[in-house]
Design brief:
two-stranded parallel ribbon, Rossmann fold, two-stranded parallel sheet, alpha/beta
Length: about 160
């Protein structure tokens, strides 16, 4: 990824703490990047996304993603990308791989496709100003996305 290499050269970036966070198509790309380059990113957060392939067509290197701490977010009223896509991606990791850090999935009851701002500004946190309700079968958004990301480093692997 040329942009990532340029950023590492231009800015004072800790190469052990590079994170991939993507919304919608960016979230789909974050799955792909984590599969193809797990050695380059410390954690991944896809929002309103899913896998770019069908479950019966997972690439041979799919379980490379098991090395990358993973926390997906989705809303149940997403009319652009169904929240089942995030559930399928999460289950694919659990069912096919042996993740070193258990992946997390937060499903916001209601909410639309454009929920990323509520995660980035922390209003979607449990008890936050958005008054969110999460599907209890999955993980609540109960920790700042920033604290969670910073708790992971490539040096921890």
């Amino acid at each position: 990824m040329l942009l990532l290499n340029m950023q590492k050269i231009t800015y004072d970036i800790d190469p052990a703490r590079i994170y991939m966070v993507g919304w919608s198509q960016g979230g789909f790309m974050s799955y792909d990047y984590a599969i193809s380059h797990p050695e380059k990113i410390a954690a991944v957060v896809p929002i309103s996304a899913g896998l770019t392939v069908e479950l019966d067509e997972l690439p041979d290197n799919f379980c490379n993603i098991e090395q990358v701490p993973f926390w997906a977010y989705h809303a149940t009223s997403d009319a652009e990308v169904g929240f089942g896509n995030s559930i399928s991606g999460f289950n694919a990791i659990i069912d096919n791989c042996q993740p070193t850090v258990l992946p997390k999935l937060s499903i916001l009851i209601g909410g639309e496709h454009a929920i990323h701002h509520a995660f980035f500004d922390l209003s979607a946190l449990v008890g936050g100003s958005a008054d969110p309700v999460y599907d209890s079968r999955f993980d609540p958004y109960d920790e700042s996305i920033y604290e969670w990301l910073l708790s992971h480093s490539l040096l921890d692997r």
